[in-house]
Amino acid sequence: MDHALRRTRLTEWLDGAGIEALLVSRLPNVRYLTGFTGSNGQVIVGSDGSALFLTDGRYGEQSSHEVADLERRVYLEGMIGAVREAATGLGLGRLGFEGDGLTYHTYADLAADLRVELVAVNGAVERSRWTKDAEELATMRRAQEVTDAAFEAILPKLHEGVTERELAFELEIELRTAGADDLAFETIAAFGESAAEPHHDPGDRPLRHGDVVKLDFGGRVGGYHCDMTRTVTLGEPPEELRAIHEVVHRAQRVGIDAVRAGAKAADVDRAARQVIEEAGYGQRFPHGLGHGVGLEIHEGPRLHWTSHDVLPAGAVVTVEPGVYVPGLGGVRIEDMVEVTEDGCRVFPRSSKELIVT
């Protein structure tokens, strides 16, 4: 991936914002700009095109081949002193930092130690990450492939008596067997009435005939995440849940049809939400329609009724309407889609129809 090009774009933004350099400390952003995959690293990107990578002694060797195109400094006594030395060496008078990337304690230490003006910056790197390049999209398609394969493999394992916790563990095994580096997030497996919780923590509730099974899961490949939800049943479900599934399925189709470059995220949310409201379940759809996915499982743009985001071509977003009825259960159907100039491309190949196992 062209990390140098990404840093060049940030350099141009810094120059326009009047900031001499930006200390990037959020690890997804560090990875995006440098390719570094370790658990501690920072990069200082200057408005003059310079860039300096910082890490501790654990990652000296790893960073030597992951960040081979940058000047690197390995510190032994903490980041603060390394940033001070870098700021002095670069002659900085104004240093930006990620407001969402530093604790107050670290900010206070920097402010006390550095003789430069510190300027909080939010979203400078994250906004660039909204639009995926060809390599990112290929990696995300691979993450989707392993997620689809895991879903197909888990369906025969649905049987009376298996618990939510057991099924979530089986799904993790299937994801890794299919080629995932790791889980994209903790799997949600919810049976019956538990499916009425949008984010349910799998427990010891056993699966029974007639239950809906809501599975929200995904694999991570090459640092990029996949996010998919399917709702199936073991045996014939209650009539209302079958009807709800059809409403949610229809709402998702409408939402997907509304996705295209230039669309307002709030309008996409509204299109799908209207279907659910007209069916009488508006109060049972309490979350936004979706979110961006990439190096983080939740990133921009945000598909929500309060969002001011506009969808750019190349973004990958989820479309995930849901209806949740306490005491009965719930249904969510979720797909990742790539935003295109004239619409979108849906990632998953697995069926969204109600599967009765």
* Poorly predicted runs: none
The helicity comes to 25-40%
Percent range for β-strand residues: 15-25%
Q: Spell out the helices and strands N to C.
A: HEHEEHEHEHEHHHEEEEEEHHEEEEEEE
Computed structural class: alpha+beta
Main pleated sheet: 6 strands, mixed
Tell how many strands the DSSP assignment holds.
19
| Average pLDDT number | 96
The dominant shape is: elongated
How would you portray this structure in words?
The chain has helices at residues 3-17, 27-34, 60-66, 79-90, 104-113, 124-129, 134-154, 164-178, 239-258, 265-278; strands spanning 21-24, 42-46, 51-56, 71-75, 94-98, 117-121, 182-183, 188-191, 212-217, 219-221, 224-225, 228-233, 290-292, 299-303, 316-319, 322-325, 329-332, 335-340, 343-346. The two termini are 42 Å apart. α9 (239-258) runs antiparallel to α10 (265-278). The chain has a six-stranded mixed β-sheet with strand order 4-3-2-1-5-6, with helices on both faces. Strands 7-10-11 form a three-stranded antiparallel β-sheet. A three-stranded antiparallel β-sheet has the order 8-9-12, covered by helices on one side. The protein is of the alpha+beta class and 357 residues long. The model has no long low-confidence stretch (mean pLDDT 96). It is elongated. The longest helix is centred in the middle third of the chain and has 21 residues, at 134-154. β2 (42-46) and β3 form a beta hairpin.
